[in-house]
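Team,

Forwarding the record for the chain on the shared tracking sheet. I've put the sequence and predicted structure together so nobody has to dig through attachments.
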Amino acid sequence: MGVPKITNVSNISELKLSHQLNVPGKTGSASFADSLQAEYDKSGVQFSKHAAQRMQSRGMEVTPGLLSNLNQAVQRARDKGSKDAVLIGDKSAFIVNIPNNTVITMMTEREMKENIFTNIDSAVLF
């Protein structure tokens, strides 16, 4: 009967099965943790309900360019071992939980001048 081909990994169970079966093109020789991280990274940064509400109330759009910049900044922070970071752009700042790929909150340029960032372990300028 042969090994079943998994074409779309949509959940952890399928990813684990794919890794165990060593389906070519899916996991190769990577560890399960590496495979899981790669699948999670594909989804990119997510926004908490609070962050989404703040963005909407401030009239900020989530553009492809912004998402790309945030994802790159998150990856840079992850590479340095960061857990909670402030990502500072030209007109806004985002507090991000790096392990969960989640924007916790955001603030505008004006608000940045009036606030103190606490409970972060790194800052990334983008």
